[in-house]
Amino acid sequence: MYLNKALEQIDYTCIQGDVHISVTDLVYDSRKLTENGVFDNWVFVCIKGAVYDGHDYLDQVIDKGAIAIIVEKDVSVPKDVTVIKVANSRQVLAHLSAAYFDYPATKLTTIGITGTKGKTTTSYIIKSVLEKNGIKTGLIGTIETIIGDQVIPAVNTTPESYVIQETFAKMVEAGCQCVVMEASSQGFKLNRVDGFTFDYGIFTNIEPDHIGPNEHKDFEEYLTCKSQLLKQCKIGIVNIDDSHINEILQGHTCQVESFGFSEKADIRARNIRLIDKPGYLGVSYEIVGLINCNVEVNVPGKFSVYNSLSAIALCRHFNIGIEEMKCALNDIKVKGRVEMLPVSNKYTLMIDYAHNAMSLKSLLTTLREYNPKRLVCIFGCGGNRSKDRRYEMGEVSSNLADLTVITSDNPRFEEPQDIINDIIVGVKKGPGKYIDIIDRKEAIRYCMKHAKEGDLIVLAGKGHEDYQEIKGVKYHMDDRELIQEILDEM
Fold it and tell me: What are phi and psi of 280, to 5 degrees?
């Protein structure tokens, strides 16, 4: 690519050198430079992160042979190196990455999903429905990136812009027609999804979350980042029931369609019915509006109505038949998101990622609606994190579950029993019974061994994670495997 061509949509100043140069490699992480250097005609983009600042590594970068650098600060480098100064190097990285990979987003139908809750489940529902109807679809999200048969564990919900564009290019090469991706608030704040326009943008909901020193300074900033999707897509599909929908829609530039329970929704759910069978929890409802039919979803709760409604609203644009859509919706599986495991006809066992008080309260409140004989909640909390989370989760579980079984999660550099003791402080504020079993497998075994007819057991906290972090080391541990081992031993 020619540097000046790739920078056409960016305001920049060429401090020195020639901007009309051919660039064959793009680098934004100095750690990826080998000792001898394997790049030719490459440009380095100085990214300022929470820990590292690319500007601090310019001597190393120049020694390795960069022909051009993109900077936000005044720098002093040899005269034969082109220096481009910009206001936001992350934004520039996104545009350069899109150009470097030959604008792969234009060769895919791109679907972005944003919201506090529901992004992951909605993305899998959409992928499942599209693929079951012959539309090969890639996925980028919290759990993993999926490119055809290749599955790559996720590092960030929304990867760096270079990685997104590289992934898009691989999806095109693999024959994907669509990509569905979780567009996080951090992804918008850090310009990771700049450089292209989504064909479809889905807004699920928003609640105060991700507010803190290393995330968003306040709810207003969080909301502003979430609303960016509707300024960066062609068609926006929004939850009209959300209390902040007017703020989310403010300044939108897309065509808008809505879903929800409200009479104002373009696609509306009504006559909701909870479905409870041995080892199975689901929900059925009637859809009216732009689509008219009855559907059943094998994921419990009101939130699954919203998630499936948004997927239905989207898939309508792909001319998928109602019967085909209904069939796909009754076979949804999302790893670690109210994931039911068929272990017994006597009780129901599920795994969920709920790992803070808000998500645990939402989950347990939903499960309470199914009137289980007993609601049993197994969870722990991560070490080297806020103690408030432990107190809050303990109190929530004690108020909503009949039995709380406190165990170990990712203790990191803390002692597991110390974390458990903090959780017990919160548990004692509620009326529920509790027991603590430090070994996670033994905690699960206890619940399975003592399960009563009609029990609903939820194993919360780790969800899709397949490790336990202790003293800086991640050891393999998957709740599903622990459950299978227990079944084999029993």
Answer: -145, 130
